[in-house]
């Protein structure tokens, strides 16, 4: 059914309603269908519409009324309820007239939603009133004035909720309900970060959310004079950028680099590390006009940031560095120009591996005169990515040495690593490295707030600091307000009061949701600031990202809802506050994110808002564990046989391998790997000439590096195009695409909602159209994991841990996702109101899994007790997944568990299995294998310690946000039985 054209045109004429929609949104109270039905019944009214069940009364722009509210307005008006399934204008009119006619007595307000199966149209209170009552049937009813309605709403906003409204609150989902009770700050006075903390304490945060405030004290600078040995040009550059003295560590590291030492600078975030490499580079490159430098950054954004810094330093001076960024976004002409002219080439390890080393002769000028290799954000090179980068650097060093006769120095920088020196030495295979860590930079005080969304009890009073379990015993379903809403409200508050703020979110979707809610709040309290908040995440096209970075740096934007794409050292200017939606997966990440604020000695604020999961709640309860723990060590294993094989093939193409000379780069495993590669047909040596000992590449691929992905980056992507503007909004990796784009999907981008109109699978293009929708969509899918045997490519080192023996196995696996439909879900209430079928191709990728078999007698024992083995396994896998970040530095979204689909009746393997979510694997499940026994024990402890008494568990134990099956088919008691059984079997290993 389509919305009748007459109604559409009528609605257009009520655009003034948009002005009030934010206001109305804030004021609503919620009503369940049951409550509506009984309220209507209590008043002896005949609803007259066939089936109240079909009423959709949950959209945010419709005022939701409790029975009590209906009573309150009894004298005034009428309620019009139309059947949402009405199919035509005639039926529609008949239904509404019929309805109105039969209840003209004394109903109190209007709730009207017209819904069809494909799209849902929602009318605001006034819309509905005007269109239905005012224009169509108004003569027969009293119409409340606009003033009356607004007054009513104002009163509602201040009144304490009680009676029916209370009940409605506690039975609804949590996202918007606490918001509706808590007024948003309307102020826009300028506040400094410390004043903001007080402001929060007295206002928005006065409901016990603030669990702890850690004051990280200010630190005085230790300055030294600018060394006299520096050239006049370098001194003039320092003067130009306003540096009159150096921090002591800067002088120390510059001296070490200029004395020919490899250096790692491991000082605080924002401690002026970039000068530690820029000054020696400028000094050397200005003295010898042939000398060159190579800068490596892990992200494109950092590369751009550094180019900006270098331009500011050198513009207008007689120094032609011809600096430029050589990455995937660089045009062919620019690449050619940089190859011919650049003396300072900024790139990333992926580009080095794919486009520089295999074509090294084109970079002959640069490689032959390479004096420095700069590796900033060294801590980013860990795990699988670190392992690959280590081998790329070995390939670079041997080419420089054998082919171009040079031995460049390294300067590493890191702000967050537990083992900076060892890690960097392993990364670049260096035998000596000077560690600079006596930090001479100043820093302003930082107030780090731990913030737990408030609890709501059955009386819907917001409770203060209540022990999670104490509360869980009382009422689990109405635990607390949504952390997403809390972060959105905080972001709005910061922006309103003139603070520059970044809200870090774990996923792309969360960053879009936070942006969307923040804008809604700002629309209500400070509409002129709505466009000063943006989202920043992977997927956006490069041009858009640059624009956001520049506008935030320039102060035009005040707030950003970002993923960790903005986490690493980009200098985004004066940030006053950071928000952190959930623990980001490692201390290093958290400190990196928080380090974005408070640069240049300014006081700053950081607020970590907890999710309900065990890890976040653990830190809320034990803040010292957060603030006193050292940052994690970075591990790489450059001897990993499988990775070594891959890179030796590439290295042999670049320059023949030699056992005698290459062992110092590739380690003692070189001989064995060369023989394996010979057997596989990649390498050949003329054994008749035993003196040469050279192994040449004879494989079929023209450029074997194309087959090796350093960080499992997918090349196949889907483009999302705004149909009307013909503009590319985003490119989504193939593995993620069908979770977001399919015909009918609601797609979010920069706080706007779009509907996907067409998906062209062959061209990999999704056309979308902007649409103001109050619902979102979520796919219905299932994922099969097929375990296959094979060696794993990534390290299994877990530092300082006693490894227990275990039955758990780590294997390669094949992950296949099948999409069979999607749900339409109201925002705010998160209620599913429609299910639609889908037909999309399956997506399969290779990954790695860690798993343990559940003993057969355990299955029999569970079934004998008439419990569901599937539900127990599913819940046990969730519990194990929840505890992984306690042992391994990772995000819980890096891994997934095998989840039982409620409709799937096929055989379900008797195993607890976790797998790497990224195609190609990320190495985390391999790291989990040796500690699987600990994971099982901790998961059992978690379940036994959680006081929720629900069989389906709670977010503290077995319910997880990322469950592909929406936490259906879960049994906590059975999970405990199964875990005990598996742990018992482990004790016999
Ligand atoms: N000696 C100095 N005196 C005054 N300001 C300085 C000095 N050195 C650096 N700064 C300023 O400190 C700020 C931070 O510098 P920079 O971005 O180099 O820090 P960083 O340690 O590289 O940061 P990150 O940890 O994010 O990578 C810059 O604005 C820079 O201009």
Automatic annotation (TrEMBL):
<dbReference type="Pfam" id="PF09369">
    <property type="entry name" value="MZB"/>
</dbReference>
<protein>
    <submittedName>
        <fullName>Uncharacterized protein</fullName>
    </submittedName>
</protein>
<dbReference type="InterPro" id="IPR001650">
    <property type="entry name" value="Helicase_C-like"/>
</dbReference>
<dbReference type="GO" id="GO:0005524">
    <property type="term" value="F:ATP binding"/>
</dbReference>
<keyword id="KW-0547">Nucleotide-binding</keyword>
<dbReference type="InterPro" id="IPR014001">
    <property type="entry name" value="Helicase_ATP-bd"/>
</dbReference>
<dbReference type="GO" id="GO:0003676">
    <property type="term" value="F:nucleic acid binding"/>
</dbReference>
<dbReference type="GO" id="GO:0005634">
    <property type="term" value="C:nucleus"/>
</dbReference>
<feature type="domain" description="Helicase ATP-binding">
    <location>
        <begin position="254"/>
        <end position="435"/>
    </location>
</feature>
<dbReference type="Pfam" id="PF22982">
    <property type="entry name" value="WHD_HRQ1"/>
</dbReference>
<dbReference type="InterPro" id="IPR018973">
    <property type="entry name" value="MZB"/>
</dbReference>
<feature type="region of interest" description="Disordered">
    <location>
        <begin position="161"/>
        <end position="182"/>
    </location>
</feature>
<dbReference type="Pfam" id="PF00271">
    <property type="entry name" value="Helicase_C"/>
</dbReference>
<dbReference type="GO" id="GO:0036297">
    <property type="term" value="P:interstrand cross-link repair"/>
</dbReference>
<keyword id="KW-0067">ATP-binding</keyword>
<dbReference type="GO" id="GO:0006289">
    <property type="term" value="P:nucleotide-excision repair"/>
</dbReference>
<dbReference type="GO" id="GO:0043138">
    <property type="term" value="F:3'-5' DNA helicase activity"/>
</dbReference>
<dbReference type="InterPro" id="IPR011545">
    <property type="entry name" value="DEAD/DEAH_box_helicase_dom"/>
</dbReference>
<dbReference type="Pfam" id="PF00270">
    <property type="entry name" value="DEAD"/>
</dbReference>
<feature type="domain" description="Helicase C-terminal">
    <location>
        <begin position="493"/>
        <end position="644"/>
    </location>
</feature>
<dbReference type="InterPro" id="IPR027417">
    <property type="entry name" value="P-loop_NTPase"/>
</dbReference>
<dbReference type="InterPro" id="IPR055227">
    <property type="entry name" value="HRQ1_WHD"/>
</dbReference>
């Amino acid at each position: 059914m389509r919305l009748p054209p007459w109604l559409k045109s009528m609605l257009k004429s009520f655009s003034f309603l948009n002005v009030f929609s934010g206001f109305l949104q804030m004021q609503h109270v919620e009503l369940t269908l049951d409550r509506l039905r009984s309220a209507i019944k209590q008043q002896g009214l005949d609803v007259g519409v066939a089936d109240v069940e079909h009423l959709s009364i949950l959209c945010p722009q419709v005022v939701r009324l409790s029975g009590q509210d209906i009573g309150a307005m009894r004298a005034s008006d009428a309620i019009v309820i139309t059947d949402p399934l009405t199919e035509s204008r005639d039926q529609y009119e008949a239904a509404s007239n019929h309805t109105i006619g039969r209840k003209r007595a004394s109903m109190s307000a209007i709730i009207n939603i017209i819904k069809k199966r494909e799209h849902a149209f929602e009318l605001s209170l006034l819309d509905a009133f005007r269109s239905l009552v005012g224009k169509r049937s108004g003569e027969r009813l009293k119409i409340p004035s606009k003033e009356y309605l607004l007054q009513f709403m104002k009163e509602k906003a201040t009144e304490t909720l009680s009676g029916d409204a209370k009940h409605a609150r506690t039975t609804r989902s949590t996202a918007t309900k606490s918001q509706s009770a808590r007024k948003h700050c309307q102020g826009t006075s300028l506040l400094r970060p410390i004043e903001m903390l007080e402001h929060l304490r007295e206002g928005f945060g006065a409901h016990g959310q603030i669990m702890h405030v850690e004051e990280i004290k200010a630190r005085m600078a230790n300055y030294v004079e600018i060394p006299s040995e520096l050239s006049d040009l370098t001194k003039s550059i320092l003067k130009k950028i306003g540096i009159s003295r150096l921090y002591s560590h800067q002088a120390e590291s510059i001296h070490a680099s200029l004395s020919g030492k490899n250096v790692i600078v491991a000082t605080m975030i924002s401690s002026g590390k970039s000068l530690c490499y820029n000054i020696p580079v400028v000094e050397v490159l200005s003295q010898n006009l042939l000398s060159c430098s190579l800068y490596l950054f892990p992200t494109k954004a950092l590369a751009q940031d550094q180019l900006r810094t270098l331009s500011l330093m050198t513009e207008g001076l007689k120094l032609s560095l011809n600096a430029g960024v050589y990455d995937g976004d660089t045009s062919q002409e620019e690449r050619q120009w940089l190859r011919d002219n650049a003396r300072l080439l900024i790139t990333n390890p992926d580009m080095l591996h794919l486009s520089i080393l295999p074509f090294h002769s084109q970079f002959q000028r640069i490689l032959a005169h390479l004096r420095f290799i700069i590796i900033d954000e060294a801590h980013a090179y860990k795990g699988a990515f670190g392992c690959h980068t280590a081998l790329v650097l070995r390939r670079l060093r041997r080419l420089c040495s054998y082919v171009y006769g040079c031995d460049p120095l390294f300067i590493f920088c890191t702000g967050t690593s537990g083992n900076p020196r060892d890690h960097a030495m392993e990364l670049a295979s260096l035998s000596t490295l000077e560690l600079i860590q006596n930090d001479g930079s100043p820093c302003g005080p930082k107030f780090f707030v731990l913030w737990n969304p408030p609890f709501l009890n059955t009386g819907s009073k917001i409770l203060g600091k209540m022990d999670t379990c104490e509360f869980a015993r009382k009422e689990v379903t109405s635990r607390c307000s949504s952390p997403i809403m809390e972060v959105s409200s905080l972001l709005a508050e910061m922006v309103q009061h003139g603070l520059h703020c970044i809200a870090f979110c774990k996923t792309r979707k969360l960053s879009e949701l936070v942006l969307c809610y923040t804008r809604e709040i700002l629309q209500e309290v400070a509409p002129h600031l709505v466009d000063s908040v943006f989202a920043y995440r992977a997927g956006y096209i490069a041009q858009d990202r640059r624009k956001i970075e520049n506008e935030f740096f320039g102060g035009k934007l005040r707030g950003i809802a970002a993923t960790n794409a903005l986490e690493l050292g980009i200098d985004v200017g004066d940030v006053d506050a950071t928000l952190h939606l959930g623990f980001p997966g490692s201390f290093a990440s958290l400190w990196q994110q928080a380090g974005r604020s408070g640069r240049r000695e300014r006081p700053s604020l950081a607020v970590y808002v907890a999710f309900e999961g065990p890890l976040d709640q653990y830190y809320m309860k034990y803040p010292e564990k957060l603030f006193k723990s050292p940052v994690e060590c970075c591990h790489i294993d450059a001897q990993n046989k499988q990775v070594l094989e891959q890179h030796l093939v590439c290295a042999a193409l670049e320059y023949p391998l030699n056992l005698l000379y290459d062992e110092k780069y590739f380690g003692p495993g070189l001989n064995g790997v060369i023989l394996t590669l010979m057997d596989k047909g990649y390498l050949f040596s003329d054994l008749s000439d035993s003196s040469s000992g050279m192994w040449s590449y004879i494989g079929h691929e023209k450029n074997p590096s194309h087959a090796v992905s350093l960080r499992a980056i997918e090349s196949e992507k889907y483009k999302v195009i705004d149909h009307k503007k013909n503009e590319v909004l985003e490119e989504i990796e193939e593995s993620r695409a069908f979770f977001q784009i399919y015909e009918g999907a609601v797609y979010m981008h920069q706080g706007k909602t779009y509907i996907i109109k067409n998906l062209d699978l062959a061209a990999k293009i999704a056309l979308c159209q902007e649409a103001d929708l109050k619902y979102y969509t979520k796919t219905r899918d299932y994922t099969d994991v097929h375990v296959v045997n094979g060696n794993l490519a990534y390290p299994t080192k877990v530092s300082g841990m006693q490894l227990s023996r275990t039955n758990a196995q780590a294997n390669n696996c094949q992950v296949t996702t099948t999409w069979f439909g999607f749900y339409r879900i109201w925002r705010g209430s998160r209620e599913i109101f429609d299910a639609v079928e889908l037909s999309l191709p399956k997506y399969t990728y290779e990954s790695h899994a860690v798993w343990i078999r559940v003993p057969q007698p355990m299955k029999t024992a569970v079934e004998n007790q008439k419990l569901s083995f599937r539900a127990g396994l599913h819940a046990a896998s969730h519990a194990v997944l929840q505890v992984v970040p306690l042992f391994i530095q990772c995000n819980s979204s890096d891994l997934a568990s095998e989840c039982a689909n409620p409709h799937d009746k096929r055989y379900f393997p008797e195993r607890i299995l976790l797998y790497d979510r990224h195609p190609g694997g990320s190495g985390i499940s391999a790291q989990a294998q040796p500690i699987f026994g600990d994971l099982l024990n901790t998961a059992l402890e978690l379940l036994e310690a959680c006081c929720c008494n629900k069989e389906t568990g709670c977010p503290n134990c077995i319910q997880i946000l990322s469950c592909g099956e929406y936490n259906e088919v879960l049994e906590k008691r059975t999970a405990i039985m199964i875990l005990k059984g598996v742990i018992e079997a482990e004790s016999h290993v």
